[in-house]
Design a protein that fits this description.
Number of strands: 13
Helix content: 25-40%
Order of helices and strands: EEEHEHEEEHEHEHEHHEEEHHH
Strand content: 25-35%
Largest sheet: 9 strands, mixed
Number of helices: 10
Strand order of the largest sheet: 5-4-1-8-9-10-11-12-13
Structural class: alpha/beta
Shape: globular
Distance between the termini: 30 Å
Length: about 300
Amino acid sequence: MARIIVVTPNPAVDVTYRVDRQVLGETNRVLEVTRRAGGKGVNVARGLAALGRDPICVLPLGGATGYWIAEALRDEGLEASTTTIAGLTRTTVAVTDQHAHPTLLVEPGPTLSTAEWSALHANIERLIADADMLIVSGSLPAAADPAEVGRMVAAARAAGVPVLVDSSGDALVVAARAGADILKPNLQELLEATRTTSPETALSAAMELGAGLVVASRGADGIIARDHERDYSVAAVGGVDGNPTGAGDAATAGLAAALLEGLPIDEALRWSAALGAAAVLRPVAGDVDLDAFHLFLSRPDTTK
């Protein structure tokens, strides 16, 4: 079975508050609270595990929140390899109701020292020898040098392991220049990172930087992609309503799982769209509706 290392450089305790209706400036009574180990990479690992893959979460953790995340991952059955940092692992809050898009409150995360970054890289390099893919997903902690992502990509390339990066800003540019096999941002992140204004130009710019395949999710507008051979696109799954938080992470998991199966890119994009839509149907980020995933895949092919 494919062994997948999933690095979450900036993990979090994800707190979801469900309210009847959000009203700014007033007291909002919480109907339900959910707390989970989080960060984009953790959600990607959940999606991979749901598909029967074998992810290992690699995270820097610190303080009481970091300890809580380690215990929560263990209870959930997700394997983790952690490094200890002095700072307190962050918390993020999502406020959801049935009337509006979720409101997200996202802390920046702790600053890692040079020694703490070195420990994280050493952990990745130790694990990568037995890996089939490295995924780096999510934001970097406060004040982090984007070159840290380039170092992760370089380690994977030196080991002959394909690497997928789902990040933003300068970290995405650094990953492309380091030769990441796959970039998987959303379209807005890709436009901002490449400082371009059209999807076609953004895809071209990322390829010119050195990426092997660029996949950009566009929410309800589907997914577009480009490699050295051609352009691709797949329509979004229609008629799906729910909580979109974490759908992009599920889409990353679907893409990675399909590529590791040896499926062609156009079919991998269908997996990506289907698992992303299956995540929207679940109330908490990181969960997917597997029955819906298989149903969505059974629909007519809409790639081109």
